[in-house]
Amino acid sequence: TSKVFIAPVPVDLGFFKPSNVKKDIDVICVARLEKQKNIPLLVKTLAQVKNHHPTLNAVFVGEGRQRRKVEKEIKRLGLTKTVLLTGRVGREKVRSLLAKSRIFVLPSNYEGWGLSAVEAAACGLPVVMTDTGGAREIVDNGITGYVVPAADELKLTEKITVLINNQ
User: Fold this and answer.
1) Neighbouring C-beta atoms of residue 159, cutoff 10 Å
2) Can you give the pTM of this predicted structure?
3) Helical H runs in 53-90?
4) CA distances from 4 to 7, 112, 166 (A)
């Protein structure tokens, strides 16, 4: 028999907490720009959401090997004025951006534990994430956000739209 050790992933709930600042970012994603995180899927999804919500805006926080691919997809879909790529930022800036956001989305193909999703939830944001890793431990589906099948553009679009429409 092998021993299993569960390493907790702590979140500082005194640092990441709800804020009353103006919510001027519709969608935020905090993730490495790597194949695992499937950020191009989120870009395609936001193009669909924007068809019904022309003033939609989004911020992607993170850096990685897929940055150029993500930038090309943003340009190809005409979202250069909709999606801002910040690159890597410090913890204070992440907290500030989460505080200004309405919805957090993590479209991963696979995930161990979505720390950024937990931080977003701690800030009071509804979380939409794919059914990977600990998603069902982080999101109370239909109550604190939505868990959707991995790589399902239609369901991701649907759930983001539901939240955009729900002030």
Assistant:
1) 23
2) 0.94
3) 67-76
4) 10, 15, 42
| Residues 44-71, mean pLDDT to the nearest whole number | 97
Asked whether 95 and 24 are in contact (CB, 8 A), the reply is no
Question: Which one-letter DSSP state was computed for residue 53?
Answer: -
> If you average pLDDT over every residue of the chain, what do you get?
94
In angstroms, the first-to-last Cα distance of the chain is 51
Instruction: Find all residues with CB under 8 Å of 40, minimum gap 6, and list them.
Output: 66, 69, 70, 73
Q: Calculate helix-pair angle for 153-165, 39-52, nearest 10 degrees.
A: 50
Packing angle of the helix pair 91-99, 115-122 (nearest 10 deg): 50
Give the separation between CA 142 and CA 114, rounded to whole angstroms.
18
Question: Using one digit for the tens of pLDDT, what is the confidence trace for 104-132?
Answer: 999 999 988 889 999 999 999 999 999 99
